[in-house]
Amino acid sequence: MIANLYEFKKDLNKRGVFFCFSGPVSQDLLVEIGATLKQKMRLEEAHNSTALRVFSMVVEQAQNIIHYSAEKCPKERGLTEATDELSIGIIAVGYESERYFVLCGNRIYNKDVGRLRDKLSKLQKMDRDALKKLYRQERKKGPGPGSKGAGLGFIDMAKKACKPIEFDFKRIDEKFSFFSSKIVI
Q1: pTM of the model
Q2: Is 100 left (phi over 0), alpha (psi -120 to 50) or beta?
Q3: Which residues of the chain have pLDDT under 50?
């Protein structure tokens, strides 16, 4: 395994990925990721608005992992109710074709695949004006059943992205699939 780590790093570089994290995701980690990305993009002299958009995509994707990942770290004794488990996922940030991108993935329940696929397919077909209109409509509705928010995350990301959201579902077994998404900024 250790001998392959260099090959893994070379593969990430070849794909344009300059930041990658796989494991338990928390709010504290999100703060640290944000500081690291901000510093990296400042060194690259990226525009502040671009850096802000990249960071907002990372935040939204990390929130999706925290709230919806079906893979959790085992509970440990002595942890408070607020921190009794952490959600597992992967987040990567890169640069290709003069654009930044954010990749995100996590395990989800198979029962949620159809609903999520339908929602994202619908968003892929919408132009910016239609996305803005949908965003306003959904904001007025508020959170739906089973939602940890108002369901605005993917709509907001689609509005800010320069290309439609790419996504994929890879079936793991009878219970789980792995959900992957790519947002280009």
Answers
A1: 0.88
A2: beta
A3: none
In single-letter form, the type of residue at position 133 comes to K
Q: What is the reported pLDDT for 95?
A: 96
Q: CATH: 3.20.20, 3.40.50, 3.30.565, 1.10.3470. Which one for 19-184?
A: 3.30.565
**Token pair in block for residue 128:** 């910016």
Answer yes or no: are the C-beta atoms of 180 and 105 closer than 8 Å.
yes
Q: How far, CA to CA in Å, does 150 sit from each of 27, 87, 143, 147? A: 19, 20, 4, 7
User: By C-alpha distance, which of 66, 72, 95 is closest to 85?
Assistant: 72
Measure the CA–CA gap between 79 and 86, rounded to whole angstroms: 11
CA distance 32 to 161: 23
Q: At what angle do helices 153-160 and 128-141 cross, to 10 degrees?
A: 160
